[in-house]
Structure formats: structure tokens, C-alpha cells
Amino acid sequence: MSWGFLHRLLSGVNKYSTGIGRIWVAVVFIFRLLVYIAAAENIWKYEHDEFECNIKQPGCENVCFDHFFPVSHIRLWALQLIMVSTPSLLVVFHVAYRENREKRHNQKLYKSPGEIDGGLLCTYLISLSLKTGFEIVFLILFYKLYSGFKVPSLVKCDIRPCPNTVDCYISKPTEKMIFLYFLVVTSCLCIVLNLSELSYLIFKYSIKCYRKRYIRKHQ
Amino acid sequence: MDWGALHTILGGVNKHSTSIGKIWLTVLFIFRIMILVVAAERVWGDEQDDFICNTLQPGCKNVCYDHFFPISHIRLWALQLIFVSTPALLVAMHVAYRRHEKKRQFRKGDQKCEYKDIEEIRKQRFRIEGSLWWTYTSSIFFRLVFEAVFMYAFYFMYDGFRMPRLMKCNAWPCPNTVDCFVSRPTEKTVFTIFMIAVSSICILLNVAELCYLLTKFFLRRSKKAGSPKHHPNHENKEETKQNEMNELISDSCQNTVIGFSS
């Protein structure tokens, strides 16, 4: 069980997505997942070992690290990727449900089980809203936990058992900041894609409904 | 999900590239991605652990390392490879879109649509002309731009491509100007020069492919302008050749954008 599993799940979702949805999947795979695995993971690998405080007091470094990094950036990033990818599964489940229904009743109930209309449209819109919601929640979480998206090179710590205010140095702060900004930019891009897809679908199906009503009136 | 997945995604595009494009892809996978994963990552693996400063002042090493290596070579290469590989997907997406449109026409029962069934649309090769030609050429152009930008970023950040053995650092909290020693400087210099050389080769290949496409485009235009009467046999031969290139998009769409299946 690893990121390959998520990759395979989302490849299945791709089949039932709109064009914008496929671009979203490509952005998530290449600019978020691949960057995470190929580059970002290694930057944060030894963050605790390389976190150094100007004191010999045992326990002070541990306590200060825990205070400044309640949840490490990289773990939050991983959680964000998982939470943001999962709503797409709602669509896959709904399509599977439709296909099962057709098998049980042994007749063609839908034009095509994968076509986005009716109930599947609602599921799709809900999944888009959830994805956008999760993206925004995680961005706010990052912002609140770390007071902005900056990574300072020095933090001052005076928690017990540190005997006084101690200087603690974070490793690779510039590199971490660059990748944090990269994460924020790709998150924002994904939010924009989700909102565009939402507007596109709502617009498309409003026009469809309007046309049907217009034809009925004239008949 | 790792570089292997990128290989699967781009492998589909490979079938539909020009010969120069195929050479470019081979160079990318063997001389850049494979070298990065198999060798370069190990050379830079212990970069901070073995970065030693001649001081016992806590924090001095961290600060000096951060000052001299704002972003590690290895991460910059990984980003460069990701950005340089992505434009190829533009072509795959365009073909997927065209195919989708043809399928829609077919389902509506459009009489203009000359296909007998959906399978034929899937296997049908589209000509690389018109908007698709522009997409293909733009993807090569973007590749060139990304390569150039990253090479410049390397040169700018590290003052050339050489890794010095010794760096002098006086950033706070270092008490004075302190000597800091980089681990494996010669090996790192060798790999940096190797990666830059391969980047340059990739730039040349992209420029060659761009020139080839432009030459073909202008030749085709001059032929059309010069011979207004259409010779069906001659045109068919040309179409077959073009369709070899177009085989790309049909299959790559299935493998890449539509399914992302391995």
C-alpha cells in the first residue's frame, strides 16, 4: 500500500471525468504527487535530527521541535493529497451502483452508466465541492499552524526543560519555503480548476434544462 | 507512483513522436532520470550530514548550509525533469479532445462522419496539421523554455557549475568567518557537468525537431500553393506517412489521458 494505490484509483476516476477533470488529475499526479515523492519527501527526511538548539539540556530540543512543528509540513502535505483525491471515488461508486442496477434488472436503465446526468451529476458536483473545500481547509490549516507560509531559520524557545530562551535552528529553511510555496500555488491551481469545472457543469446543464422547457412550451 | 509512472505516461506519447522526439525521450529517461535516481541521489544523499563547519557553535552549520544551498541541486534537477516532461501531455490531451469530438459526431449520427464504428475512431490517426501542429510545436517550444530557465537558474544560484571544496561563512550565529567544507565536491562537480551537458543535448534535439517541423510545414504549404490539382495517390501516400505520426495520439490518448493505465 503506497502512493501507487492512489495512482491506480485516480486513473479509474479519469474515465468518468470531464476535460477539466482530466487536467485536474494530471496536475495532481505530476505537479503534486510526483514532486512530493521525487523531491519534497527527502527535504523533510531528517528534519528532527537536523533541528539544533544552542543548549546541552536533555529534552530541550525534543520539546522545542514538538512545539514548533505539531504536525510536520510533509505529513500535512500527504494528508492533503489523500483527502483531496478521495471525493472523486464517490463518482466511481455511483457509476458502479448504476452498472449493478442495470445488471440486476437485466435491462438498459441509463443511456450510459458513465454519462454525467441526473443523480451522477449531483454526485459529481458534490465531489467537486468537497475537493475544493478540503483544499481550502488545508491551506488555512497550513497558514494558521505555521503563521503564514514562511519557514524561519531561527526560532526562540523557552519551554521547560529549557532553562531559558534558547536559539533553535531549523535545517534547510529556504528549500522548505520554496516547496511550500510550490504546494500553495498548485493547491490554488487545483481550486481554480475545480471551480471552473463546477461552473462549466452548472452552466451546461442549466442551458440543457432551459432548452427542454423552451421546447415543451412551444409544443 | 514515482518516475516509473511518468515513464508509463510518456511512453504512450513516444509512439506518436517524430524520430527526433523519440531520441529526446530516450535521452531523457536513460541519461537524466535514470542517472538521477541511480547515481546522483546517492551522491547528494548525505549532503547536510557531511557538510562540516569549523566551529562548535550550534546552528552555524544549519545557517551556512541554508545560505550556500537555498535549493539543492538534486531537487532542482527533479523539478527540471518534471517540468520538461509535462508539455508532451498537451499533445496527448489535444488528441484525446479531437477523438472525443469525433465520437460525439458518430453517436449523433452525423452524416459528415465517415467512420463505421467507435473502434475505428479509436484506431484512427489524426493528421498533425492545423491546431494539432500548433499544439505539438508549442509543446516543443515550452520544453526549450523550461530547459533554458532551469539551466540559467543553476548558473545564477551556484555561480557557475563547479562545486567548491571550501566555503567561507559569517552568517549569524557563526561567531566569525568560518570555514565550511562540502562533502564530495569533485563527484558533485562531475555529475553537475554531466547533467548540464545532457540538458544541452536535449536543447539541441528540441531545436532540431522544431526546425524539422517548421521545414515540413513550409514545404507542405509551398507544395499546396504550387500544385492546386490534387493527385489522390500521392496524397494517400503522404497521409499514410502522417498517419504513422498520428498513431500516437490515438493510442496515447488511451494510455495516458483517458485511462492513465500502466
From TrEMBL, chain A:
Main localization (coarse): other
Domain Connexin N-terminal: 42-75
Membrane topology: Multi-pass membrane protein
Cross-referenced SMART domains: CNX (SM00037), Connexin_CCC (SM01089)
Occurrences of domain Connexin cysteine-rich (ranges): 134-201
Transmembrane segments: 21-39, 77-97, 118-143, 178-203
GO biological process, one term: cell-cell signaling
Domain of life: Eukaryota
Location of the protein in the cell: Cell junction, Gap junction; Cell membrane
One GO CC annotation: connexin complex
Sorted UniProt keywords: Cell junction, Cell membrane, Gap junction, Membrane, Transmembrane, Transmembrane helix
Transmembrane helix as UniProt keyword: yes
Name of the protein in question: Gap junction protein
Lineage start: Eukaryota, Metazoa, Chordata, Craniata, Vertebrata
TrEMBL record, chain B:
Gene Ontology cellular-component annotations: connexin complex
Connexin cysteine-rich domain sequence ranges: 146-213
Native source organism of the sequence: Glaucidium brasilianum
Protein name: Gap junction protein
Any one GO molecular-function label of the UniProt entry: gap junction channel activity
Subcellular compartments: Cell junction, Gap junction; Cell membrane
Matching Gene3D superfamilies: Gap junction channel protein cysteine-rich domain
Chain segments annotated as transmembrane: 23-40, 77-97, 132-158, 191-214
Keywords: Cell junction, Cell membrane, Gap junction, Hearing, Membrane, Transmembrane, Transmembrane helix
